[in-house]
Amino acid sequence: MLITSLYNYWIVIALMMIGLYMVVAQGNLIKKIIGLNIFQTSVFIFYISVGKVDGGAAPILIEGENVYSNPLPHVLILTAIVVGIATTSLALALVIRIMRAYGSVEEREIQAEEEKREIQAEQEKREMQAEEVQC
Amino acid sequence: MDLVLDIVLLSLLLTTAVAIAWTRDLFSAAMLAGIYGLLSASFFMTMGAVDVAFTEAAVGAGISPLLILATLALCGRKQRSDRKRALLALGLVATVGALLVAATLDMPAFGDPTAPAQTHVAPRYIQDSMAEIGIPNIVTSVLASYRAYDTLGEVVVIFTAGLGVLSLLLGMRGARETGTALQAIPRQHLVLRMAAKVLIPPILVYALYVQFHGEYGPGGGFQAGVIFAVGFILYALVFGLDAVRRVAGNGLVQFLAALGVLIYGSVGLLGMATGKNFLDYSALAGDPVSGQHIGIIVIELGVGITVAAVMMLVFYLFSEQLQDRNDAPEQLSPGRAG
User: Fold this and answer.
1) Best exposed site among A37, A131, B80, B183 by fewest CB in 10 Å?
2) Does the residue A127 lie in any domain?
3) Residue A59: inside a domain
4) Total count of domains within chain B
5) Under an 8 A CB cutoff, do B101 and A13 touch?
6) Structural domain that includes position B231
7) What are the tens digits of pLDDT across the range A21-67?
8) Which of residues 69-128 of B touch A (CB under 8 A)?
9) Which residues of A touch B10 (CB under 8 A)?
10) Could you tell me the CATH number of the domain that includes residue A124?
11) Based on the domain organization, do B154 and B286 belong to the same domain?
12) Domain assignment of residue B117, yes or no
């Protein structure tokens, strides 16, 4: 049956696209990071789904059990989850620094603030040059 | 039954993800992210990925929402709407999604035992790991022995991320005098205080069990490290940051984060010193299988120490940031964050 045999993959794609949408469309940096996390989890779900074998037990050897799920995706994803939280915390730390520097975590406001600062810097430069000419 | 569970859990995950994308209140987004983590842990459980479910439950439903909440306390919980870009992004997402769906039509069916993913190295791990490594948990065998070099890389990444957070947030503290970082919750919250006091010792003992039982059951250094850190974080949330730093100070966790990587790397170098390859555990004992045992226990300990220390370090740094924000309206009281 097509639907039950590919259902997992389609959900993975839907989750991945929701994550991608949040990263692209939403201007709030924290929301973007949550979106990246959803994207990341969708990849985890994909790997674990690929590793599933029908009727397979959890990959811990016991007597009388012959069919096990594939252990390799489990290893990759287990480490990826912990690495994921470490990198997420790094991203959140960057957001905190951006908040300190610009007073906002909205992309547009950060950009507006940056432009304002550029204009200010240019004005100051011109004033300096004007003073030099006067001297 | 398995199929029904699979479909229900994945549908719930999808609903939660849509709700997270929809809401403009970042506080509820963080809470929903916790639910999302717990749901995906349950899903991993139904897939037989017990070790992964373990990790995801501790990380996705525990530490991750907590760090997001700490960031929200500093950056505000309201998100401004950005309608202009929504349409363009929807177009992009729909196109990419449609292409990916078309690509899945060639995928081997879910659970197919003859799929390419199942027929390469996996049979070897399942059939030979008992004879070669001598421990029942295949995931631990692969993680700590067959792919030990890879795992060393992961541990170094975690350590480096911890260093990154440290260098970004250290010395960023503003008005120190306005209050302590994360204060203990008031004394009248007896239920919270008692519940925490009762819960913390079992959490720590359980973390040690997960650490040292990882060869025989689900568990290992990554899971144990996260669970151990959660015990300390719970203590900090209820009794304040200063209380937990009397037990494990900033200097100590920084030292431990490096120590774990050092232990791991030293095991590898020990192999080289006796003329074997890097991370070849057979150098550690007379016969190869008991060498594997010793090697796995030691490197898992290294992993556990680094993971626990980095998680605690990151949590300390984030909650130290909260102190000069005591006047902000969105400030989270520790009780609510827990």
Assistant:
1) A131
2) yes
3) no
4) 2
5) yes
6) 137-338
7) 999 998 899 999 999 999 999 999 999 999 999 888 889 998 888 88
8) 70-72, 74-76, 79-80, 82, 85-86, 88-90, 92-94, 96-97, 100-101, 104-105, 107, 109-113, 115, 117-118, 121-122, 125-126
9) 7-8, 11, 45
10) 1.10.287.3510
11) yes
12) no
Between CA B269 and CA B126 the distance in angstroms is 28
- The answer to the question of residue A10 being in a domain is yes
Q: Which residue has the tokens 């401004």?
A: B80
Tally the domains of chain A.
Answer: 1
Phi, psi of B139 (to 5 degrees): -60, -45
Angle, CA of B102, B105 and B111, to the nearest 5°:
140
Give the end-to-end CA distance of chain A in Å, rounded to a whole number.
86
CA distance B48 to B135: 18
- CATH, residue B74: 1.20.120.1200
Angle between helices B148-169 and B288-321 (to 10 degrees): 20
CA distance A115 to chain B (A): 19
Report ipTM (2 d.p.). Answer: 0.90
- Give yes or no: residues B39 and B171 share one domain: no
Instruction: Please tell me which residue of chain B has the smallest CA distance to A22.
Output: B21
Among candidates B43, B64, B88 on the partner chain, residue whose Cβ is nearest the Cβ of A37: B64
Per-residue pLDDT tens for A73-131? Answer: 999 999 999 999 999 999 999 999 999 899 889 988 999 999 999 999 999 999 999 98
Tokens 């639907």 -> residue: A3
Q: Which residues of chain A have a CB within 8 Å of the CB of B44?
A: 44, 48
Please indicate, yes or no, whether residues B59 and B192 belong to a single structural domain of this protein.
no
